[in-house]
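Work Package 4 report. The design task specified in the project plan requires that, given a folded chain encoded as structure tokens, an amino acid be chosen for each position. We show below one input record used in the internal validation round.
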């Protein structure tokens, strides 16, 4: 989709997270200057000015771990709740009969919802399916990516289980996928399955993004992934890493040291893992979350994604990065700034995207939200937002609230 909409060259009067009120100049999709409010030259064309007085201006968010092919399928499937393997079975039964058009409709709608919330980049895992047409999901997401080109960046990871032949996975790359991944910890021979995906990524020089140790009691593949890809120049990520959050400290810290040494990116998925994990623990239910605090303190490349949205793996979720950040604070004990970094600049870094935000030289991917501070933005997640991608306004949401019965207003509110 070509960019034909609003392309401001000056953003005026925005608040930054550090409290400054600034003017931001943009040229060619890049932030060229950030100066105190009222000091930037005013363009002669008033249509080139975007007034953001009363808005907090942040880097646009990014979702490094999504499943757009599964999004919004809960109502059609109605799976049993709170069981990862039952969710897999339920999804595969539905996937056997779903059409490419069905996937396109749900994925396209969900991607636009992500965009309206502020995410201008999404890495989506897409299942390589069973049967005679295994690339239905891949073809659907390539179509969605083309439909939304210019509005947002979509990266496709071909996600395959151990019963999908290697040749079929490789054909997904030929069909337009950007990388490969799987859930080797669920395979009968986890390390052999991990090596299969490492081999595919190595041969095709593509992104490798594995679902890793997504349980409370198995630590099988994360350490092996770190060891086997240490020194790689291509992009490698590990999603979930739930077991890392429940390991005893000495073993956890040794594993984290290996992760840091390998430079693989760790992607937490709080809402889905908090939902799926721990149902069989009647008391003192453990948190289904990776060791976010320790990973950040150790210097790991760390990000977080919304993961599943109203599908068999999570019946809820808004795909709002501010929701993900909130969960990192309340469940992962990160501070507000760390949590937002994980869903913005940290997510982009793990996805190997250029730096974005209201900083000179950065890509002009920006989120303006009606809030006075970052803590207010994360706490309230105001729906009043303007989203900018490469210097173009690509989404605008406005809200209004009235209290017809509240007359006259209390003195304190006037």
């Amino acid at each position: 989709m070509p960019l034909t909409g609003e392309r401001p060259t000056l953003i005026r009067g925005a608040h930054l997270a550090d409290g400054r009120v600034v003017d931001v100049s943009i040229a060619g999709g890049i932030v060229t200057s950030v100066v105190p409010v009222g000091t930037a030259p005013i363009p002669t064309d008033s249509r080139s000015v975007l007034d953001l007085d009363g808005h907090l201006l942040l880097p646009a968010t990014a979702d490094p771990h999504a499943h757009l092919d599964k999004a919004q399928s809960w109502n059609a499937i109605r799976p049993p709740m709170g069981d990862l393997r039952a969710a897999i079975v339920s999804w595969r039964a539905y996937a056997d009969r779903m059409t490419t058009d069905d996937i396109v409709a749900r994925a396209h709608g969900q991607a636009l919802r992500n965009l309206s919330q502020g995410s201008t980049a999404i890495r989506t895992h897409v299942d390589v399916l069973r049967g005679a047409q295994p690339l239905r999901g891949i073809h659907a997401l390539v179509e969605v990516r083309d439909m939304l080109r210019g509005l947002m960046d979509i990266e496709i990871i071909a996600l395959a289980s151990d019963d999908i032949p290697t040749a079929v996975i490789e054909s997904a790359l030929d069909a337009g996928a950007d990388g490969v991944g799987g859930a080797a910890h669920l395979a009968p021979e986890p390390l052999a399955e991990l090596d299969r995906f490492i081999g595919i990524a190595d041969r095709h020089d593509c992104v490798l993004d594995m679902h890793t140790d997504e349980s409370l009691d198995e630590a099988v593949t994360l350490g092996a992934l770190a060891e086997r890809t240490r020194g790689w120049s291509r992009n490698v990520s590990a999603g979930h890493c739930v077991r890392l959050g429940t390991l005893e400290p000495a073993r956890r810290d040794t594993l984290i040291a290996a992760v840091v040494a390998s430079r693989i990116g760790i992607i937490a998925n709080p809402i889905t893992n908090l939902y799926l994990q721990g149902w069989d623990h009647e008391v003192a239910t453990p948190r289904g979350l990776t060791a976010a605090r320790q990973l950040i303190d150790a210097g790991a490349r760390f990000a977080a994604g919304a993961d599943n949205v109203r599908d068999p793996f999570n019946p809820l979720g808004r795909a709002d990065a501010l929701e993900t950040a909130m969960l990192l604070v309340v469940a992962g004990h990160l501070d507000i700034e760390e949590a937002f970094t994980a869903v913005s600049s940290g997510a982009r870094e793990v996805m190997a995207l250029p730096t974005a935000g209201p900083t000179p030289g950065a890509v002009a991917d920006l989120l303006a939200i009606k809030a006075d501070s970052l803590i207010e933005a994360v706490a309230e997640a105001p729906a009043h937002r303007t989203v900018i991608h490469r210097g173009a306004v690509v989404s605008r949401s406005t809200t209004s609230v009235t209290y017809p019965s509240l007359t006259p207003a209390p003195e304190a509110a006037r």
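The chain has two domains: 10-60+357-397, 61-350. Validation will be extended to a larger panel in the next phase.
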